[in-house]
Amino acid sequence: MEKSKSTNGTQVLAASRAQDRVDRLDPYGFERSVDFDYASYEELMSEYLVVLTRRSIKWSKLLKGKGKVQKNVKLKRYVRKGIPNEHRALVWMAASGAQDQLEKNPGYYQSMLEAQHDPKLVETIRTDLHRTFPDNVHFRKTSNPCLQKALYNVLLAYGHHNPAVGYCQGMNFIAGYLLIITKDEEKSFWLMDALLGKILPDYYTPAMLGLKADQEVLGELVKVKTPRVWQVMSDHNVMWTLVVSRWFICLYIDILPVETVLRIWDCLFYEGSKILFRVALTVIHHNQALIEKAQSLPDVCQAFKEIVRGPLVDECHTFMQKIFSEPGSLSKATLTKLRTTCRARIVAEES
Amino acid sequence: MSRKKGLRGKTASSSSPSKDSPAGKSTGKTVRGSPGIVQMNGVVHPSRPPISNSSEFYDISFKVMLVGDSGVGKTCLLVRFKDGAFLAGSFISTVGIDFRNKVMNIDGVKVKLQIWDTAGQERFRSVTHAYYRDAHALLLLYDVTNKSSFDNIQSWLTEIHEYAQQDVVLMLLGNKADSAHDRVVKREDGERLAKEFGVPFMETSARSGLNVELAFTAVAKELKHRSTKDPSEKFKLQEYVSKEVKVAGCCRS
Predict the structure, then answer these.
(1) Contacts of residue A36 in chain B, CB cutoff 8 Å?
(2) Which residue, A140, A180, A173, A171, is CA-closest to A27?
(3) Least packed by Cβ within 10 Å: which of A88, A111, A218, B78?
(4) What's this chain's function (chain A) (predicted)?
(5) Does CATH place domain A209-350 in 1.10.472.80?
């Protein structure tokens, strides 16, 4: 008792010191939550900063004197190890093809903004403006510049540009992240276009068919790779949409820590949507034992909330290594085939 | 959605043992403590018993769903009921579906409400209506400051009739009743619509707390009454609601 008390005291002290040293805001403007573990964060960052510095030097060399980023094996390897934040916008734009689109279509973004506003679209977007990252200083009405206006513009322009999608909840968070990283509306717009138009299946259209299919695809993959978890899901009648729809729709925003999400997005822009499955499979596989303990549907839901936090996902650098090794092979052909069958099944069920 | 930026935020609930509920009438199993119990700064307190709270034990359990247009205040209503708090401007839009538990003591019986919060945007309905059929009760919300959320109630009712169980307990709630200046839907309009469809109605405010407890209590009482079928007690949901309801901007108690 006495001993545990003193250990406790020391830990509390260490934590409070770390709290004095670590900024209350993260580098992206998010307030740290009340239960933020400052001591662990400091410990983690002391290691990660070494990685970041090393990567930053390597990237500077790679990009030195080059006006354009070329996709090749070396760049892919570099991307998997993380793009330094100062180069993120540049590499995302180049790797996704957004830069080409921007250059081919000068003034297009502005023209979409100036188009006749669809009042229904405007209203739906407005409903979510103050509900997008209220814990981020850049999205406060009082901040200058306030990203809420930029967010509104990007979503409105995108809604006009792609009327079949218009606006779907979740896009607000994606556009928000893009603005935080690029600090530029037009770039965010074209990155949004690359994501929704090219990289992701149709997650955000009114029928959400791509989303529904990918949820089932994940189920099929889990069935093969982590069959005991699949069994738990089936025993308790848990539909995949219940536990993973947000993972796909929000591209892990607000599910995983900010830094981890950005590392995932580095690969998402370079390699495509397959990465979303690698992340899900790793998290599920790694927490198999915890999920198996679930005795009921609410238990399963709770387990899926717990598995997206903790050291596994906090240590983003090792996590990104794990996602390429732990789930094993996942070929483009497998994914394409599964997507086709799942999609057909859903269409048949819905008609 | 709760923010997940905490590094190594250690959840303490995973180790708490499941105890069978005392009466174990319905689904029987006891669920771990409410979501999101986190020990501060990840410090473990060895002298403390495993985290437990009243929500660990219950006699009967029911599923309640919150539905209605985007932005009418479903999550706020739930958080007000669950935690007694209104955190203005700190909510983010609900994507998909989520749930929270709350155990209420209804005339000596511990009734657990498993409350499902859903995304309001129309395209999400095809994802969420699969859950309607398991719901014992539905709270259908509109926003008294938003006419279109009120006009859409009809289409919500159609959706409910199509997918929910026939005997589902249904209640219509006009939320944000504290916003006197921005109000565009009169209380009488809500009452008229509710009467037309034969559902109980009240105005609520997640901000002030008006009728929030009552809405859930009324539902819990009705569900408990239905499941126990005690002939000695008589409970009429409509009567209970009209007796207990408070009116916005009025100090009648």
Answers:
(1) 5-7, 9, 41
(2) A180
(3) A111
(4) May act as a GTPase-activating protein for Rab family protein(s).
(5) yes
What is the CATH number that goes with domain A85-199? 1.10.8.270
In chain A, residues with a C-beta closer than 8 Å to the C-beta of B42 are 15, 37, 39-40
* Number of compact structural domains in chain B: 1
Asked whether the predicted pLDDT for residue B25 surpasses 80, the reply is no
Q: How far out from the chain centre does Cα A92 lie?
A: 14
Residue of A nearest to B113 (CA): A298
Contacts of A135 in chain B (CB under 8 A): 3, 90
Across the interface, do A12 and B46 touch by the CB < 8 Å criterion?
no
Tens-digit pLDDT profile for residues B131-146: 888 899 999 999 999 9
Quick one: angle between helices A240-249 and A274-286, nearest 10?
A: 130
pLDDT of residue A10: 62
Distance CA B169, CA B217 (A): 13
Does the pLDDT value for residue B201 go beyond 80? yes
**Nearest chain A Cα distance for residue B253, angstroms:** 34
CB-based contact B14 A206, cutoff 8 Å: no
The pair of three-digit structure tokens given for residue B246, joined into one six-digit string = 């408070």
Helical ranges in A97-184 per DSSP H: 98-104, 108-114, 119-129, 147-161, 171-182
Test B93 with A132 for CB contact under 8 angstroms: yes
Compute the distance between CA of residue A4 and CA of residue A9 in angstroms, rounded to an integer. Answer: 9
Name residues whose C-beta falls within 8 Å of residue A25's C-beta, 6 or more positions apart in sequence. Answer: A31, A32, A137
B111 beta partners: B60, B104
CATH number at residue B87: 3.40.50.300
Judge whether B233 is closer than 8 Å to chain A, CB to CB: no
- Which A residues 140-199 touch B at CB under 8 Å? 168-170, 172-173
Question: Nearest chain B Cα to A213, which residue?
Answer: B127
Q: Inspect the interface and report whether the beta carbons of A258 and B5 lie closer than 8 Å.
A: yes
Instruction: CATH 1.10.8.270 in chain A: give the residue spans.
Output: 85-199
A–B interface: beta-carbon pairs under 8 A? 165
Strands B60-68 and B137-143, sheet pairing: parallel
Contact A8 B123 (CB under 8 A): no
Evaluated on CA atoms A269, A273, A277, A278, the torsion sign reads negative
Residue A79 CB partners (closer than 8 Å, separation 6+): A91, A95, A266, A267, A270, A271
Q: Three-state SS for B175?
A: strand
This prediction has a pTM of 0.87
Q: How confident is the model at residue A68 (pLDDT cuts 50, 70, 90)?
A: confident
Asked if A253 and A174 count as a contact pair (C-beta separation under 8 A), the reply is yes
Q: Is residue B206 part of a domain?
A: yes
Nearest CA in chain A to B88: A134
| Contact between A40 and B3 using a beta-carbon 8 Å cutoff | no
Q: Which domain holds residue B78?
A: 60-251
